[in-house]
Amino acid sequence: MEEATLFQYRRKIKSAAELRTLVGSRPRAKKVIMCHGVFDVVHPGHLRHLIYAKSKGDILVVSLTADQHITKGNVRPYVPQDLRALNLAAFEIVDYVIIDMEATPISNIKTIQPDYFAKGYEYVKGSVHPKTQKEIDALEEYGGEIIFTPGDVVYSSTQLIDLAPPDINNEKLMVLMDAEKISFSDLRQAVAKMAGLRVHVVGDTIVDSYTQCSMIGGMTKTPTMSVRYEERQDFSGGAAIVAKHLKAAGAEVVFSTVMGEDADCDHVLQDLAAFGVDCRPVIDPTRPTTNKNAIVVGGYRMLKIDTLDNRPISERIVRQLSAQIRDVPADVVIFSDFRHGLFNRESIPVFIDAIPEGCFRVADSQVASRWGNILDFPGFDLITPNEREARFALGDQDATVRPLGSELFKRAGCRTLMLKMGERGMITFRRVGHETRSFFILDSFAEQAIDPVGAGDALLAYASLAMAATGNDVIASILGSFAAGLECGYDGNAPISPVELLARIERAENAVRYS
Questions:
Q1: Helix axes 455-470, 239-248, angle to 10 degrees
Q2: Domain spanning 197-358 has what CATH number?
């Protein structure tokens, strides 16, 4: 199926006002019957419902609930509204489709005034539900009638999705890009525009170590494993890998951080210098450079040994870093907070006040096993927490993801929130304009998941650059998601290059175009 074939059915998708003009006022020569629902995954029960409804009228109108009003399930709807509308429009029996932007179909019933309104049999079992009664009342105001379709075949979209979620990430991407009038050429141009942007990264340095071992056995008297050391690999991590991602993308990067006076500091400085990152560390001889050493046996991470000191940095160091923030010329300032002492209650307001006027401001505060809060960075242009960090910030372990993200977006006062959901992808919230959706979801684009650690850093880097270069949150989300997916394919932290990103864009385009 070609892309153009899919979108040819868009002619059936109308607004309520357009449809009222098309079908005319009552009484009509052709009877209009209307169905309403979520239709997240169209299954045989839905099809039977639609076929029966069509048999009772001449014109079948299907109204579907907009994404913003669906709260059932943690990440629902699984299929976004534009794609759900196209799915229904592709059926020959369906004449028109409406995306209902209201929480209930009452407004559209009053506008279109269908002759019949079809409900599933489950809505008539026992007493009439109060919501159904409101629909009946709206119909009876002008002489419409409700019809209940047969109910001997019942399926659940939720159960089908939970059983085996369909792989439709490319279809979701295609529909989103089409709705936002974004092409794959726009994605490529955005990658090119990143080159030369001046970025100042401020954050905690972490050396991520992987100590590879092989299993020897266990002790006979105690539950102690015995392993043989084979090799150790050290990677510049934390905010340092964010700086490397940015440099790999073509940005001019200055990195301000705090490190100890030790071998790990020397390793990071040599690594960043060789990579072309201008690192300006403040050396604190009273604390070690943060090191996180994973003991890996047969591909499994058996244990992690952390060497760190999470004490807040001194006032002297706060002054030094704030001077760097104020004096370094930058288009973008990124606060990469891993809560190892650099960012704290006293330092954060000072650092924020030091950001030069006109800079694009980005914050990422990772909680992990420590205390941190993304709401400490109010009014930023972009924040990129994950779901756990959002729940931590709001003290909310119960809300489903979309209401959770919506509340965090409101409380943070940011321009754009990219909420990372791990293997489930990400959801972006943004300030809305005319006919602009307030949020959209992208599935994960990881082609292989060797090591998902560090994917968020890749997303942070590329999304920040894309936002600064284009001002387009959809382009930034897509490129950030692609970069995160690529990072999942590496064992350990590895900077993602534009060549890799462009190749990933090409693979996505080929998949969408079936080429």
A1: 50
A2: 3.40.1190.20
Give the chain's mean pLDDT: 89
The CATH code belonging to domain 168-194+379-515 is 3.40.1190.20
* Closest C-alpha among 202, 185, 128, 149 to residue 36: 149
Confirm if 33 and 59 have CB atoms less than 8 A apart: yes
Which backbone phi and psi does 468 adopt, to 5 degrees? -65, -35
3-166: CATH, from 3.40.50.620, 3.40.50.1820, 3.40.640.10, 3.30.70.1150: 3.40.50.620
**Contacts by residues 276-281 (CB-CB < 8 Å, ≥ 24 positions apart):** 276/247, 277/240, 277/243, 277/244, 277/247, 277/253, 278/252, 278/253, 278/254, 279/240, 279/243, 279/255, 280/254, 280/255, 280/256, 280/324, 281/205, 281/256, 281/257
**Integer Cα distance of 354 and 398 in angstroms:** 37
Domains 3-166 and 197-358 share a fold: no
Residues 192-242 pLDDT 10s: 999 999 999 999 999 999 999 999 887 778 888 899 999 999 999 999 999
